[in-house]
Backbone:
C-alpha cells in the first residue's frame, strides 16, 4: 500500500487516550516542535521491538534537542504502558484500541486480520502537523534509520528556528 | 508573557496572592499556606518560579511533595542528578501536576509534585529534602502530563516541564 500522507501534506489531528488513559490530542503533543510520529503493529512484533530500540537510543538526543516522539498502536492503555515501561521509553504512546483512527487514517494493515493493527509507518512532522517525511515500514528496511531521523529533525528545526545560525555580535 | 508564576510556602494567609491553599502535614497538623502569584515581580523573599500550569484557583485539594533546597544550596539544571530526576518523571505514571522550582535561570532549587494520594516516591526527593503535605482547595491544578522525551528547558529561565519557547 502507498501511505496516504506524503511530504507536504497536512496530517490530521488525532484525539486518543494515552498509555495512562488520559485523552490527548496529537496537535498538543507535537506543539511547536519537530515530531516523530510512529505507527506500530503492537508489542508482539519482533520488528517493532527492534525498531523501538532504535527510537529509545535516539531519545537521549531528542530530550535535549527539542524534538518530540509519539507512538500509536491499537494496543489498549494498560498494554501500551507496560510495553513503554519495558522499553524505557519516555514519550507518549497513544492507544487506538477501538480501531477508529486506524481506519480514519487509512493505515490498517490488511494482511493481519488477527490483530488489525496499524501498518508500520513513521512520519516526521513539522509544526502544524505538516508532513516533512514519510516512511513505510511494512518491510523492515523501509523504516528510517537513526541517521535519517536526525537528518529530518535537523531539517525541520533549521526551517523553524530563526536563530539556527547562531546569533553573533554585529561587526 | 510578561507575568511569571511564583510559588512560596508562607506562614499566614497571603494578602494579594493569585491563589492560596492551606497546608497540613501528614499528621493533620497545620503547616501554613502555599501561595501562588502571577506577576512579574517577586512577591516574597522565599518565592520560586514555577510552571504556571500547576496553578488553578479552582483546583481541588491535593497531596503534594514539596522539595526545597536548603538555604544557600542549589544544583545546576544540567546536573546529571537533576536530568535523571526529570527522566524518571517522564517514565512514570504522571502526577496530577508537576513543576520544578527556580530562582534564577540556571539552578534547580526545588519541585512540587501533586497527586490525589500521598506522593510515595518523588524523583526530586533524591536531590533535596521533601515534605509530604496536604494542600487544601484553591491552588493546585490538574495539569496535562508533560510530553517526552524532552527534558531541556525551553528558554533557560523557564521552569521545566514548561514546553514552549517564549519570552521569559
Residues:
Amino acid at each position: 500500500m502507498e501511505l496516504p500522507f506524503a511530504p507536504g501534506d497536512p496530517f490530521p489531528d488525532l484525539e486518543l487516550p494515552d498509555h495512562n488513559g488520559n485523552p490527548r490530542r496529537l496537535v498538543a503533543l507535537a506543539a511547536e516542535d519537530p515530531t516523530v510520529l510512529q505507527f506500530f503493529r503492537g508489542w508482539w512484533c519482533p520488528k517493532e521491538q527492534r525498531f523501538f530500540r532504535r527510537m529509545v537510543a535516539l531519545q537521549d538526543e531528542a530530550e535535549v534537542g527539542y524534538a518530540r516522539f509519539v507512538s500509536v498502536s491499537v494496543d489498549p492503555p494498560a498494554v501500551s504502558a507496560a510495553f513503554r515501561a519495558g522499553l524505557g521509553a519516555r514519550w507518549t504512546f497513544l492507544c487506538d484500541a477501538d480501531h477508529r483512527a486506524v481506519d480514519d487514517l487509512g493505515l490498517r494493515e490488511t494482511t493481519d486480520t488477527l490483530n488489525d493493527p496499524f501498518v508500520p509507518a513513521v512520519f516526521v512532522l513539522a509544526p502544524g502537523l505538516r508532513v516533512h517525511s514519510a516512511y513505510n515500514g511494512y518491510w523492515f528496511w523501509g523504516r528510517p534509520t537513526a541517521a535519517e531521523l536526525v537528518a529530518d529533525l535537523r531539517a525541520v528545526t533549521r526551517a523553524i528556528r530563526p536563530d539556527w545560525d547562531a546569533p553573533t555580535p554585529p561587526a | 508573557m510578561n507575568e511569571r508564576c511564583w510559588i512560596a510556602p508562607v506562614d499566614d494567609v497571603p494578602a494579594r496572592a493569585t491563589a492560596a491553599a492551606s497546608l497540613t502535614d501528614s499528621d493533620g497538623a497545620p503547616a501554613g499556606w502555599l501561595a501562588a502569584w502571577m506577576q512579574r515581580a517577586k512577591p516574597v523573599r522565599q518565592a520560586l518560579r514555577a510552571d504556571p500550569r500547576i496553578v488553578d484557583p479552582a483546583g481541588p485539594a491535593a497531596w503534594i511533595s514539596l522539595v526545597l533546597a536548603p538555604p544557600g544550596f542549589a544544583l545546576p539544571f544540567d546536573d546529571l542528578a537533576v536530568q535523571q530526576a526529570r527522566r524518571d518523571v517522564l517514565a512514570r505514571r504522571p502526577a496530577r501536576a508537576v513543576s520544578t522550582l527556580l530562582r534564577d535561570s540556571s539552578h534547580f532549587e526545588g519541585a512540587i509534585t501533586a497527586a490525589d494520594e500521598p506522593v510515595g516516591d518523588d524523583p526530586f526527593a533524591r536531590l533535596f529534602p521533601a515534605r509530604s503535605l496536604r494542600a487544601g482547595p484553591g491552588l493546585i491544578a490538574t495539569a496535562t502530563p508533560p510530553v517526552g522525551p524532552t527534558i531541556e528547558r525551553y528558554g533557560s529561565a523557564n521552569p521545566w516541564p514548561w514546553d514552549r519557547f517564549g519570552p521569559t
